[in-house]
Amino acid sequence: MTENKARIAQKSPYAVDVEAGKSYWYCTCGKSAGQPFCDGSHKGSEFAPREFKAEKSETVYFCGCKHSGNGMTCDGSHQKL
């Protein structure tokens, strides 16, 4: 039996300055040592990284708890965990 819930990496968002036109691979499993991005720790599970393509250079608040209703970006769900 495999675990189908992502591990909570942290109960707050990761503020990341992204660059326009660049792709970032968001960790969905919560096990990556390079949060909020994938380092391959999901291998052997049903998790896979998700691509975030920056449309503009800005600060993005990536979800740290892996439970956001917004997908990769924080919606405050960590406050209810």
Automatic annotation (TrEMBL):
The keyword Iron-sulfur applies. GO terms for cellular component: cytoplasm. Residues 11-48, 49-80 form the Iron-binding zinc finger CDGSH type domain. It holds the Pfam family zf-CDGSH. It comes from the Bacteria. Keywords: 2Fe-2S, Iron, Iron-sulfur, Metal-binding. One of its GO terms (molecular function) is 2 iron, 2 sulfur cluster binding. Coiled coil: none annotated. PANTHER family: CDGSH IRON SULFUR DOMAIN PROTEIN HOMOLOG (PTHR46491), CDGSH IRON-SULFUR DOMAIN-CONTAINING PROTEIN 3, MITOCHONDRIAL (PTHR46491:SF3). This is Iron sulfur domain-containing, CDGSH-type. It comes from Sideroxydans lithotrophicus (strain ES-1).
